[in-house]
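Form 7-S
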Amino acid sequence: MTSLIATNFITKNKTTVTFSELLTSNDASKLLAELNDLLPNKSHKPYLDSSGNKVFYFNDLKLLADEHKATEALITLFNRLFADQQVQLVRGEHEPEYFPADNDNPARIEFAHGFFASALHEISHWCIAGKARRQLSDFGYWYAADGRNEAQQRAFERVEIKPQALECLFTLACNRPFQVSQDNLFADFDTSDSSFAYDVYEQAKTYIANPQSLPRDAQNLLTALLRLFIGNN
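Output:
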């Protein structure tokens, strides 16, 4: 397992948050063992071909350097892993959007512009959403565009803590650096006092310490990514 790249943030309390410290080699191995115990019946391995060979190599630096190939591998993995749930991960040409299943058409998670990070982010929202919200367009979320006022930004950050904590774990499991997103570049107020990065960090720590608190679909995907990443089949 190669070392993870450090990404630091400063909260309003001047505390340095280093996301890469969340998932060291030992932590990843321990988390995988606990996830395997939580999912004892998941004997199938959709990231292997019919001969038992790995199809995906997220720890391959050549793959990581190629955004298109890495994204294609993630799409294939997700769509195989969750085929029984009638949902597909799809490259979007515009902004991300979730479309619930309609008649004979599966649900679609469309992520922005083919970006790997956007795919993980939208998957995280799908993992958090329960059965009822998966039947609603965009999971029933409201969305205010960039330029939100302070109250809107606080509301946005509250609902983003758990999804971005999941995204953090998925990203680190793919040996990529994680960075939180306040998604408000054109705010007309000072966003630097926000504790959002720290809150996401603490939620990710909670998930690692208590993997049973992860949504079941997040457990499945994180198990697959960790198995690929640390070489356990």
